Amino acid sequence: MPPLLHLDNLSKRFGQVVIADRLELEVEQGAAVGIVGPNGAGKTSLFGLISGDLRPDAGRVALGGVTLNRLDGSKRCRLGIGRTYQVPRPFEGLTVFENVLLAAQQGAGLRRSESHLLAYATLERTHLAAEANRPAASLGLLQRKRLELARALATRPSVLLLDEVAGGLTDVEVHELVEIVRSANAEGVAVVWIEHVVRALVASVRRLLCLSGGGFVADGPPREVLASSAVREVYLGSALGLEVSA
After folding, report:
1. Closest by CA position to 158, among listed 55, 59, 83
2. Taking the domain 12-80+161-246, which CATH number applies?
3. Which of 86, 109, 80 is nearest to 191 (CA)?
4. DSSP secondary structure of 47-115
5. Residue 67 pLDDT more than 80?
6. Residues near 89 by Cβ (< 8 Å), separated by ≥ 6?
7. pLDDT tens readout for residues 33-42
8. Is the per-residue pLDDT at 238 higher than 70?
9. Where are the CATH 3.40.50.300 domain residues in the chain?
10. How far apart are CA 31 and CA 219, in angstroms?
11. Mean pLDDT of the chain
12. d(CA 76, CA 72)
């Protein structure tokens, strides 16, 4: 049985900047995987290769054994790749509910009452039901982050790619976000989470990878990876360790 998500010999560079150098990654259904790495390591670009925003120079992205390379982002979303963006991208002229409804219809392919039911359930799940009729443009940072997550969840993903969804939030807000992600993961959604708020990853994932120089320099249980000499060298013994101990 093939892994749910498989990156096979994946390569991508922008000039002299190497994003992926024959990268290999397998993610099983229901897995919870975190990715750390220094700024500029290519973490968000890696998500772009998976979601269809970027095309690889070589190698293959597969979901459930199906090669995705020739498919655009909308088709990959329909097949089960859901993602958030580091800077939330709501449709600001629509309400919160309309944003999530659109994700249910265009991402999950639902119609009529089914799409409305999923949209309402997703707003409840992400603690946004009280904001359903507010214009998305009026939301603060926490609510925008929640809406970004809600839109991704409303596509009914089998793989959920999270890009810095905890950044800029308070400890309490991070905890609430972690609980939402854990809930989705407990239902079988595979989570791959890029995050600088490392305590959120330690609380959520069972496997942690460190991306640097186009490859994974460490892969294993979160606390072991964070304590490894390879990761400390990548971060020059600096901010990562300080944040974990905070």
Report:
1. 83
2. 3.40.50.300
3. 80
4. HHHHHTSS--SEEEEEETTEE-TT--HHHHHHHTEEE--SS----TTSBHHHHHHHIIIIIS---HHHH
5. yes
6. 148
7. 999 999 889 9
8. no
9. 12-80+161-246
10. 14
11. 94
12. 6
Q: Quote the pLDDT of residue 240.
A: 54
Distance CA 33, CA 99 (A): 27
**pLDDT by residue (tens digit) across 101-126?**
999 999 999 999 999 999 999 999 99
Question: Mean of the pLDDT values across residues 140-156?
Answer: 96
221 in Cβ contact with 192 (< 8 Å): no
Query: What are the residues facing 159 on neighbouring strands?
Result: 81, 190
How sure is the predictor about 235, in pLDDT bands with cuts at 50, 70 and 90? confident
Q: Which residue has the tokens 């993961």?
A: 185
* Range 42-48 contact pairs with CB under 8 angstroms and sequence separation of 24 or more: 42/12, 42/17, 42/18, 42/211, 42/214, 43/163, 43/194, 43/211, 44/86, 44/163, 44/194, 45/12, 45/19, 45/20, 46/19, 46/20, 46/211, 47/83, 47/161, 47/163, 47/192, 47/194
CA angle 161, 18, 192 (to 5 degrees): 15
Per-residue pLDDT, 245: 43
